[in-house]
Amino acid sequence: MSKASMVALLTLAYQSFGVVYGDLSVSPLYVFRATFGSRRRGDVEEREIMGVLCFIFWTLTLVPVVKYSFIVFCAHDNGEGGTFALYALLCRHLKLSLILNQHAADEELSTYQLEQPITSSKGIWFRQLLDRHKFLRNGLLIVVLLGTCMVIGDGALTPALSVLSAISGIRVAAPHLHENVTVAVACCILVLLFGLQHIGTRRVSCLFAPIILAWLFCNASIGLYNLITWNPSILKALSPYYMYHFFKVDGKEGWIALGGILLCITGAEAMYADLGHFSPKSVKLTFVGVVYPSLLIGYVGQAAYLSKHLDQVDHAFFKSVPNPVFWPVFVIATLASIVGSQGVISATFSIINQCMALGCFPRVKVVHTSNHIYGQIYIPEINWIMLILCLGLTIGFQNTVGIGNAYGIAVITVMLVTTCLMTLVIITVWQRSIFLALCFFGLFGSIELLYLSTAFFKVPKGGWVPLVLAGILMLIMYVWHYGTTKKYEFDFQNKVSMKWLLNLGPSLGIVRVPGIGLIYTDLVSGVPAIFSQFVTNLPAFHEVLVFVCMKSAPVPYVSQHERYLVGRIGPKDYRMYRCVVRYGYRDVRRDEDDFENQLIANLVEFIRTEEAMSSNAQSFEGDQHLTVMGTTPALLSNGHSVKEMETDKSVAISNNESLQSMEWISPPTSLIPTRRVHFDIPVSETVDSDDVRKELSALAKAKEAGVAYVMSHSYVKAKMSSNFLKKFAMDYMYTFLRKNSRDPAMILNIPHTSLIEVGMFYHV
């Protein structure tokens, strides 16, 4: 490895401390308390401390180190990790439709990588099995949604547990302080934490890594001190024999205690989910080299202290801290808990954004908190919902034991989902033997199922919280995905045939007025029914028509030079085009992007290169051929002159009875300043033909006349013949979600005065 590569790796490794390990590193604050929380003071014995330490050691070693660091990290989607990354990887290799409007050109993206084509009999058989049985495909989606919902639930549970665990340490220094005081202080910190989310973390993120490193150093130092001072012989508890002895003597009580032990691996899934921000090698280096040893020494030190102070399992960490350094450690622990909470909150925003991109979550407002750091976003609605949930959990439980019971179910469920998906990846993507995949699932699945069984035992004691949250989220996500799928299928089945369009002639049987009409649709081929609905009721349309499809591709990111697909609909004199704009499921769409000018620049590039690509472009009457255009914002500044002008334009729309099936956004009667852009045709290095110059001139004139945006205003209803469940899901739940989600025009930053909405009824 070169010196530059080594420096880059170490830089990434350092930065990962503040983002990846906040949640995992603060687990020593509450593991022993959650494990023995239901015991009466004085009931704990030394052999039980040794048994719990043995479980902590082997769980930390097998799950985060062996499973994640050395196996799961190898299954990434172009460097991206997490539940959706594994699902996208499976969908690409099994030819499953992750995206509704998937296009053949998506497979040519540079990030659309296959490990190797499926050639093994096992992989082919499994793909055919999914093709034959729709319920298996739906089952796979439900498993993915379950894991995703549990991760989102972590966004509410982690801040409550981490902050309350840190603040409760103050009662060690002031034993007579009432518990309500610590709850109130924790609530104030949570309100401050969520209240500052809108400013982003750019200004303080440089402090995250030093805080976590300081915390890990404190944890390891105190652990080493306690080990040497109180009981060095506790190291013999690392022998697997003590797990057997723990179960043999304690029986059911020992099995119940596992619900607290599993909290030692909270945050392990975050390592995998945050791969995209760093690299597998840097995350593996920091965890195996620094985080894992520090946590292990800290747990061993706590066990050594508790073995000689059996009545102090409550607030075990803070009671094991030497008095001279108590307050500095308390401050660092509080800061570390806030950093860990911040990481989970930011991850929740990112996951919600991914779900929206894949059509699995209602549209919500996404705010970019940094112009310099890509991917830092803030979602107001989700932020305030999580704050309410955090405050409710903190005030309702008032201690970390109940919250820990809830947190345990969420943590272990996500890990089990990852194990299931990883087993399929081993068979279908890596094309290894079924025996190897079963060995993987048998080892790690059995560990996680054991912990899951004890976690479900604690459902009445707080474990019901993540189940209720996951149930509500899964219902919302599945209904939204189902309704979106049915709506797309209706659009696809009712699109206008090209024969009908060509029979209309160049004028399309209507009056062509100056300007450009952008018709938004989910279809990547064909003419949507919204167009025929429009021209039927109002026989006039713009001189240049562009059917725009903003779609997600089954990859994490789409580079700018591959983002636009441009094609022609019908012959040249129709002046009709199609533009497909592709985003990855982890791409963040910025409202301030100059989409209008980029679109026109790509049309210019397409018109100029069309003749070079096809000698018979004049006679082209199809709609299937789309060309990747490599226009970037730099082309606009170098090749096109764009002048911003403010003009006064009033728009009058008549209230005609023939427009009853259409819904319009009516502007105010006063004159409204609207933005217009003067577009100059750039000088080409090659001499344009007369036809090209004529078409470019028409495009420039149309742009000067203005741009109108046409979108459908959908009313979705279940068919009369549908069963009760479908009618309730579509007519009530899906309709409610649509009415309370963000309007598509606002997401696309479409000017209000330039928007035309066409009413469309969908009977699905």
TrEMBL record:
Membrane topology summary: Multi-pass membrane protein
Record-linked InterPro entries: K+_transporter (IPR003855), K_trans_C (IPR053952), K_trans_N (IPR053951)
Annotated ranges, domain K+ potassium transporter C-terminal: 514-762
Transmembrane regions: 49-66, 135-157, 177-195, 207-228, 254-273, 285-305, 325-352, 373-395, 407-427, 434-457, 463-480
Gene Ontology molecular function: potassium ion transmembrane transporter activity
Keywords: Ion transport, Membrane, Potassium, Potassium transport, Transmembrane, Transmembrane helix, Transport
Pfam families, per the entry: K_trans, K_trans_C
Keyword Membrane (UniProt): yes
One GO cellular component term: membrane
Span of domain K+ potassium transporter integral membrane: 12-502
Location of this chain's protein in the cell: Membrane
Family, as annotated: Belongs to the HAK/KUP transporter (TC 2.A.72.3) family.
PANTHER family recorded: K+ POTASSIUM TRANSPORTER, OSMOTIC STRESS POTASSIUM TRANSPORTER
Xref: NCBIfam families: kup
Biological function: Potassium transporter.
Record protein name field: Potassium transporter
Organism: Physcomitrium patens
